[in-house]
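Hi V.,

Quick status before I head out on leave. The structure for the redesign project is tokenized and pasted below; the design run finished overnight.
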């Protein structure tokens, strides 16, 4: 339940940043579009985000056409990493097998660059 709420709040924060933060809008404008999602490995909890300069859409589940997916071993691992989403936390999680990246690692770097403006 905690992870599900955390992912929903992330969607609210993304939409708010698009409206209120010029640096976020500018960075998203440079990216053009980024479709990504977060979920547990068994997909019991999953949410996706479709971001473009025109708006941000969020929804349940992980569609197959996403640019980037962050899959976590379980909800506890996801909460641990997402509370402090540093590059080191993601790398440590990947090395330990708790985090799996589906997609291009450059998209993760772009996403982290964008999320620092939240």
């Amino acid at each position: 339940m905690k992870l599900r709420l955390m992912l929903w709040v992330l969607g609210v924060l993304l939409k708010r940043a698009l409206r209120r933060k010029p640096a976020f809008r500018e960075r998203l404008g440079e990216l053009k579009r980024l479709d990504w999602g977060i979920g547990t490995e068994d997909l019991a909890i999953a949410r996706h985000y479709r971001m473009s300069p025109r708006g941000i859409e969020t929804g349940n589940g992980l569609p197959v056409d996403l640019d980037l997916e962050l899959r976590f071993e379980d909800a506890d691992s996801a909460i641990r990493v997402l509370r402090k989403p540093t590059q080191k936390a993601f790398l440590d999680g990947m090395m330990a097998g708790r985090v799996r990246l589906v997609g291009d690692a450059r998209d993760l770097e772009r996403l982290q660059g964008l999320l620092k403006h939240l």
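Above is the designed sequence. The mean pLDDT is 93.

G. will cover questions while I'm gone.

Best,
W.
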